[in-house]
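User: Quick one: structure for sequence A, then sequence B.

Assistant: Sequence A:
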Amino acid sequence: MMLSEKFLAAILIAVTLTISTFAADPRLDVSQIIGKTEAAAVLGEPVREPSARSGDGVDGYYSKCNYYSVRRGKSLVIRFQLPGRTAIPPQKELELLIAANGAMEKVTGVGDAAQMLITAGDSTFASRVLMLCVAKGNAFVTIGLAGFADDAIALEKAKTVAHKLLEHL
């Protein structure tokens, strides 16, 4: 039995769309992309065993990993999310964060859109936290760095981590 050209074309389109969907919707395990050695390099000192978790949740797929320095004071927190059908799209989530926090600053050169927030509890550098939130396609990435006195250095480190994750999309 011969298949018609239209039927073959329809199959080719369906396969192409399926492949494109999978390529644009990877299920990253952030702890496999940013491992313990790389986290230690980012923080500038050895880190403890990471706390990592990946899986599907109510709002879609997520992967997270927390790295803490052996000596107290520095941390790297990574979150990656692919929202489910009923969840808030990444671009909208970023807009809601901006509306809720107000003090966020636009960051260029990473993802489709990115914002950062720097908090400081007291005058010590260990209490400073930089959060970089990035929307790219259907992915939402959050990189948190704590314990850096220089915000510009912390931002560049966060952007490096974000780029490394986003290159897997």
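Sequence B:
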Amino acid sequence: MQITPGKLAGMKAVADSSGTIAAAAMDQRGSLQKALAKERGGDVTDAMMEEFKTAVTEVLTPHASAILLDPQWGLPASKRRSTNAGLLLAYEKSGYDNSQPGRLPDLLDHWSARRLKESGADCVKVLLYYTPFDVSDINERKHSFIERIGDECRANDIPFFLEFVGYDANGGDEKGLDYAKVKPQVVAGSMAEFTQTRYGVDVMKVEVPVNMKFVEGTGACAGSSAYSRAEAIAHFQAAAEAATRPFIYLSAGVSNAEFTESLELAVEAKTGFAGVLCGRATWKDGIPVYGRAGIDAFRSWLETEGVSNISNVNERLQAAGSWFGAYGVESADALA
């Protein structure tokens, strides 16, 4: 198999020398602004958002293979990343359209894959809320939406990272026990769908296929369980078997301890995952520090706790696979 020169260059830029993607994520927008405003007890300006993102980028990218940012507040930060770190830029609007069912997505105004690439992006990332169990009309709208983005990225010869986050189509609590029982099917079904060539996805950014708070015997387990440890490992394996494209795990806002424990399960399951794109599990506990004590205190927190958090994740990646391993080759250059 071969991939085009632009896509190959983009993939090399965001992975380490062994082909593992050890990327940090700092593309949160609306949720971050609200969290900071809550801690500050007042409005959060554009300058504050840029300052927060720049501090995270400067301190954490020496320990990452790439950084995911947004073009709204993240472009100044992108210029301050470590020289070893590639750049992914988000293309979707923050959140989703809640005026109608289905959590329908939209793209940022005034942006395109071409413009993201011109702004320095090595790869384009899009987030999609998706469940195979929603009604056909909603999912077909999402399928065609992703097909269009895939074609746009092909035309501009830039890798396309698709992040999909599951939800309960019936409006249930995605953090509860009932959803935990169906989450493995949501994740595996989503991976099976978007691994198809028609979508043009180069890397799937996927959720851990279980809720670790309901895995019996784990440190994250809060009491009730939805699966035994053996069943959880089987769910990891089933989701991985659905993939014909490289996939990496997202942290989904859980604690650093919970995310690293989930990576240990993925390694035990031998899923062949190609790395992570990890955001809040590394820096979210610094939000109160920035909000209450300002940028200097936040930077000090990042240099200690933040670096410790990303190092914890990186330790679990020593047993991860490579993005090119999904294509059955031993080096990226074999795809040239």
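Residues 295-316 form the longest helix (22 residues). The mean pLDDT is 96.

User: Thanks, that's what I needed.
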